[in-house]
Amino acid sequence: MVDFGVHTTGGILAGQNLARICLADRAKVTVHPADSSIGPWPLIQVYTEDPVHACMASQYAGWPVQSEGFFAMGSGPMRAKRGREPVLESLKVSDASDFAVGVLECDTLPDCNIASLVASECKVPTTNVFLCVAPTRSIAGTVQVVARSVETSLHKLFELGFPLDAIVHGHGAAPLPPPAVDFVEGIGRTNDAILYGAHVTLWVDAEDGVIESVGAQVPSSHSKDYGRPFAETFRGYKCDFYKVDPGLFSPAMITIVNLKSGKSWRWGTLRPDLLRQSFGEHYQA
Questions:
Q1: What is the pLDDT of residues 188-215, one digit of tens each?
Q2: Which of 54, 181, 198, 201 has its CA 20 to 30 A from that of 29?
Q3: What are the structural domains of the chain?
């Protein structure tokens, strides 16, 4: 078990490494200076030439890891070892390695029971389980969540029925918010970084009509819950994720480039006003 932010401070470099683990090291995660058109926050950039495996087969937090008194959202390569998710079955993804490597997003370190649970689900010895743990509101945890910009767009396209095997490359950038002390604010800021600050570009090989039929539905602005900081929305639903419109969890803006026709499209808009509200910025000259 590796502590990335529960009892340790962690940091941006730790967050980059944590994000790379989430992505099964099939993507690059880098930090860049702020884009003044969005705000004063550094940008977390992710780019991959294997977006489907990096994001949907690994990074997507599709495994609720839980036992009595413990709950964490699980992501990383261990999901493919387990293989019990609709998206993994759809992609026909499997992993024959002897190890289970995963990332847990939670505020407490797991005990031996969780290690045994993961080992059992992944059919590996407990000694071959490697768990990386970070709270959302830690620095490293914030980085790894904001590095999910491309993943959210792929998951949205999957839900819309777009053929994921047509997606060839992916690039995304989103602002890195300041970590929050409050649990709900921490979740709110990391989500808002993507919902209102992420721009994703996907290179695909598909028919123009297929792209045009779904493109406008991809950005977060298509959701009925769009338009206010996520923490407000989350509290309004009494902190029940399952009551939030699933369509909200996607980037603010998406550009799709069609390698087959040479055409490109852009949908959505960036909302620096909502980012400032969410991130609690207090500017002093």
A1: 999 999 999 999 999 999 999 999 999 9
A2: 181
A3: 9-60+136-279 (3.30.1030.10)
